[in-house]
Amino acid sequence: MDVSLDRLNEFIVRAKAATYVGDGKHAPSSRPGSIDLLFEDGPFAYLDSYYGGTDFIGEEVVYYNGQPVWAMNYYGYILKPDLIEAATAGKVIKASLSALYKEGRFLGGFEFAFDGFVYTDTNEGDAAHFTGKEWISQQGIRVYELVYHGGLIKP
User: Fold this and answer.
1) In sequence order, what DSSP letters do the residues of 34-100 get, joined into one string?
2) Residue in 131, 117, 61 with CA at minimum distance from that of residue 89
3) pLDDT value, residue 69
4) Which segments in the chain show pLDDT lower than 50?
5) What is the pLDDT, as a whole number, of residue 90?
6) What pLDDT was estimated at residue 2?
7) What pLDDT does 54 receive?
8) Helices then strands (H, E): number in the chain?
9) Residue 86 to residues 52, 63, 78, 108, 145, Cα–Cα distance (Å)
């Protein structure tokens, strides 16, 4: 890969902030039934492709000069539908991730209080190779969670 990990990390943060969190540009579905979000900047392109809503699964891929160089898979789900709806979880996640991305990162652990909920993210590793989990709690009860993993793609 001809790009530094720091430069890749900077692009990933910009792309994530501009797509799901920023209600960004939808792309044509890359697979039947998928919802796709696209962000492009110079030699970089980012595609987030997912299925579902309340419970969902997806994959983010970064391309550099047309070649896949990084990816992340994720699966999120509502644990307590009597305490949180998907739309509310989405608002909490967007507000929390927006605050995280303003710090110039998407990894490294994070906690953010929003509208009576607490968003928490924990992970191990860096952009080259990582695993993690995010969750939303209300009054100490975990109501939503998402697991993720990813890293560099090498030929």
Assistant:
1) -EEEEEEETTEEEEEEEEESSSEEEEEEEEETTEEEEEEEEEEEES-TTT--HHHHHHHHHHHHHHH
2) 117
3) 97
4) none
5) 95
6) 78
7) 92
8) 2, 9
9) 11, 30, 7, 25, 12
Which are the contacts of 138, defined by CB distance < 8 A and separation ≥ 6? 83, 84, 116, 117, 118
What amino acid occupies position 62? V
Q: Which residue has the tokens 């044509």?
A: 28
The whole-number pLDDT of residue 88 equals: 97
Q: Are 28 and 120 in contact (CB under 8 A)?
A: no
pLDDT score at 29: 95
**Per-residue pLDDT, 155:** 85
Structure confidence at residue 146 (pLDDT): 98
Domain coordinates in residue numbering, the chain: 5-152
As a whole number of angstroms, the distance between CA 136 and CA 123 comes to: 15
Residue whose pair of structure tokens reads 């492009």 in the numeric block: 40
Angle in degrees, CA 79, 80, 81, rounded to 5: 110
Cα–Cα distance measured from residue 25 to residue 66, given in angstroms and rounded to the nearest whole number: 19
